[in-house]
């Protein structure tokens, strides 16, 4: 169990892990709701999802799964495509908003470190603080990159669909029913980790140079 192991070894790191997951999931789902509302669909707002209150976005079982095994989910943010002016384009924009919000949060958190790093003013205190903050950054990068996998039910499916030519779009949408099986296969075989870890590590090394991946 990930969280119990962290609690036993370093409670501060465990707390950062929890904060990173809660913040990442909350801003991810709230961003879906915000963009949907801006594009003309009030579904998420009416469902109480246009908020940064974590209670509105965390799924109990999904959150426990994340804390225990490192794989889980938040409450999917609902939207009605028939309220959108351009279903193909706007669905993609709503979907990509979640990952973008995770990347933006990671970048914002890294800015103070980068300032001290490039001005040569790093100190033991700053490094100690970023031992904790780096975990939040790492988790948000994982959430952002993982959700861009173009397989249903992940956001990347609708993002890729929105980028495809219209003739290909309809054929691609038909693969939605097989998405969960493809995703499970990728997770069980470890293919997700082998593909995504190098990407996440590369982005992390740019944001927090000199730091090793937390996990």
Notes on the protein architecture:
Helices cover 70% and strands 0% of the residues. The protein is mainly alpha-helical. Helix 2 packs antiparallel against helix 5, helix 2 packs across helix 6 and helix 5 runs antiparallel to helix 6. The two termini are 14 Å apart. GO terms for molecular function: metal ion binding; metallopeptidase activity. Keywords: Cell membrane, Hydrolase, Membrane, Metal-binding, Metalloprotease, Protease, Transmembrane, Transmembrane helix, Zinc. Belongs to the peptidase M50B family.
Features:
membrane; metal-binding; single chain; Rip2-like; metallopeptidase activity; zinc
List the helices and strands and how they pair.
Elements: H1 2-9, H2 11-38, H3 43-46, H4 60-69, H5 87-118, H6 124-146, H7 155-163, H8 166-173, H9 179-189, H10 191-207
Please sum up the structure shown.
One of its GO terms (molecular function) is metal ion binding. This protein is mainly α and 215 residues long. Helix content is 70%, strand content 0%.
């Amino acid at each position: 169990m990930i969280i119990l192991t962290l609690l036993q070894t370093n409670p501060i790191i465990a707390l950062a892990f929890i904060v990173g997951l809660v913040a990442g999931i909350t801003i991810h789902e709230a961003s879906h709701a915000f963009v949907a509302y801006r594009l003309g669909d009030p579904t998420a707002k009416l469902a109480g999802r246009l908020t940064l209150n974590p209670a509105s976005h965390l799924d109990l079982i999904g959150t426990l799964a994340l804390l225990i095994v490192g794989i889980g989910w938040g409450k999917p943010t609902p939207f009605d495509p028939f309220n959108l002016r351009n279903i193909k384009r706007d669905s993609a924009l709503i979907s990509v908003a979640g990952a973008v919000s995770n990347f933006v949060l990671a970048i914002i958190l890294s800015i103070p470190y980068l300032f001290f790093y490039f001005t040569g003013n790093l100190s033991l205190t700053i490094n100690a603080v970023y031992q904790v903050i780096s975990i939040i950054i790492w988790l948000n990068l994982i959430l952002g990159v993982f959700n861009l996998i173009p397989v249903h039910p992940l956001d990347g499916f609708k993002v890729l669909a929105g980028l495809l030519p219209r003739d290909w779009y309809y054929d691609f949408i038909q693969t939605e029913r097989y998405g969960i099986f493809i995703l499970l296969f990728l997770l069980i075989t470890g293919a997700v980790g082998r593909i995504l870890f190098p990407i996440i590590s590369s982005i992390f090394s740019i944001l927090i140079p000199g730091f090793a991946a937390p996990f």
